[in-house]
Specification:
The chain is an alpha/beta fold. The chain contains 4 helices and 6 strands; from the N terminus they run αβαβαβββαβ. It is elongated, with a radius of gyration of 34 Å.
């Protein structure tokens, strides 16, 4: 065997099919594009959502309300979740954002807001970005402290 005698396996290499090379080729004339219309023209590209001139769905459907671009999104943590962490001995006396991230309850870039659902029996010092009134009262009633982060 020599390098100059190597050939691909029989039937594995086919010639590229050339469109528009005369009627005898079986694909002349319209070159497989059918007759007339936008799709038969060169440079055609379908716009996303285009419905042939009919009013597109995304413009037909009524719109209402608005999205406030200045909205501050908080990740809410309820008191019953904090009590469960205490019961499972995952926290003892302090709870901060780092601890919540460590236990998978928040991401490192989240803003944390403590919410008032449930009951807190343990004395816990909590540092968060925001507290609801009921949560703050429940924490202080249990003997803990609710500290705002950055203050």
């Amino acid at each position: 065997m020599k390098l100059n005698t190597l050939k691909p396996a029989a039937g594995s290499v086919k010639n590229k099919f050339r469109k528009g090379r005369g009627e005898a080729s079986g694909n002349g004339g319209t070159s497989g594009r059918g007759h007339k219309g936008q799709k038969s023209r060169s440079g055609y590209s379908k716009k996303i959502g285009f419905e042939g001139g009919q009013m597109p769905l995304q413009r037909r459907v009524p719109k209402f309300g608005f999205k406030n671009i200045n909205r501050v999104e908080y990740n809410g943590i309820n008191l019953d979740v904090i009590q469960k962490l205490v019961d499972d001995k995952k926290i003892t006396d302090t709870l901060s954002k780092e601890v919540l991230v460590q236990h998978g309850l928040a991401h490192k870039n989240d803003l944390i807001k403590i919410l008032g659902r449930g009951e807190l029996k343990a004395t816990v010092n909590i540092t968060a970005d925001k507290f609801t009134k009921t949560a703050q009262e429940a924490i202080e009633k249990a003997g803990g402290k609710a500290e705002l982060k950055g203050k």
